[in-house]
Recover the amino acids of this structure.
């Protein structure tokens, strides 16, 4: 990061990804290559596609809802306040097991780029 700044996030920029979750990019800028942050929203009963990120570590910070996450051989229920750590290259998915949207921040280091994404389904 070279310059200080404030990013104003426009909720209307949320999009439905091929991964089956709604994504709102909060900060993913080549000028700040060390990290990216996005908000993910998964509808009730929906799970993301199993995938992995090459050379990128990811963290899910659960903000609302409840679900079940899979990272490698780990399978665990998650709820608000939980932090899921996902090392590079680990197969991962998350499923909404509740009645409300499952909302979480995706924090990637280095920043997320689509060429690091590998769909495993």
């Amino acid at each position: 990061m070279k310059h200080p700044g404030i990013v104003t996030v426009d909720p209307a920029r949320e999009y439905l990804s091929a991964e089956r979750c709604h994504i709102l990019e909060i900060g993913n800028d080549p000028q700040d290559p060390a990290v990216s942050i996005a908000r993910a929203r998964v509808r009730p009963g929906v799970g993301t596609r199993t995938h992995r990120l090459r050379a990128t570590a990811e963290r899910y910070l659960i903000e609302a809802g409840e679900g079940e996450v899979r990272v490698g051989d780990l399978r665990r229920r998650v709820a608000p306040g939980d932090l899921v750590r996902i090392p590079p290259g680990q197969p991962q998915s998350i499923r909404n097991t509740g009645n409300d949207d499952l909302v979480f921040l995706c924090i990637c280091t280095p920043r997320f780029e689509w060429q690091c994404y590998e769909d495993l389904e």
Remarks:
- The radius of gyration is 14 Å.
- The longest strand covers residues 57-64.
- The chain has no helices and eleven strands.
- The mean pLDDT is 95.
